[in-house]
């Protein structure tokens, strides 16, 4: 039935009044959605609008490939998100999300998922459906564990899990063989699974500010690593296999109070010699043999300057073998001190 001009006028007037009674942030969101409805774009940016809920009209935009809902005040994601199956990129960071609906697992075309800086305490097992995901940002939440289904994301290249409350990693993380960057700093990890040896494409591994007391010998398989950050842990020693990391150029060892010296195998790597020496200079650690207590760096410095024969058992018999190896290294190389 055709509407009279008067009816059309009243309808328009009511719509106008309703738009102008909406909160400014929601009104701006509605405008963007209207534009999207008319032009059928694949991109919608509703970030920084202080939204407390997602306008229901969003779920009708099934052509969307990119949806940005970051920097709002969202406390949940409606199950209707399951209809946006063409999404390849979604940004939900900087909200107040406590959980994700299991329906999010329907978004199997996602290549990037950003859910960082929320209040998530767990990830749904349906996250394993994101078989095309290459970038996953879950940093700055309250996760205490990672579901085993994470091992299904075999195309993942970057995985940010820093600033959570993780106490362990699932062994299935070893299936993420395409990972190049793994951020795990500022958690509560006490150990790493031996399956980490399978992440042979890793170039950057960040493990600072955890509670690591040791590293598995399997870390020596990560021969493509260029950056390894172990700052601020509880490491007592490093495995000899760490010397296999021949491409390592950036290494952070400081603030491990119980770590007295790195293994000789690491010193032999010219790429990290400067960092190891810096570690020796800054560590307050000391070693004790036969009741004698010496500062490691000062000892090495004096021995190098004096060009003392490191094989002189009478002088150096009281020192650990690893220190003798270090002195021998200095004696046959260019001065780094």
What this model shows, in words?
- The protein is an alpha/beta fold.
- The chain has helices spanning 5-21, 24-39, 264-267, 273-282, 296-305, 313-316, 321-332, and strands at residues 43-45, 66-68, 89-91, 112-114, 135-137, 158-160, 181-183, 204-206, 227-229, 250-252, 286-289, 292-295.
- It has a 10-stranded parallel β-sheet with strand order 1-2-3-4-5-6-7-8-9-10. Strands 11-12 form a two-stranded antiparallel sheet.
- Helix 5 packs parallel to helix 7 (321-332).
- Residues 1-22, 283-319 and 330-337 have low confidence and may be disordered.
Key attributes of the depicted protein:
single chain, 337 residues, alpha/beta, Leucine-rich repeat, LRR (right-handed beta-alpha superhelix), 2 domains, 10-stranded parallel β-sheet, 12 strands, 22% helix, 11% strand, disordered N terminus
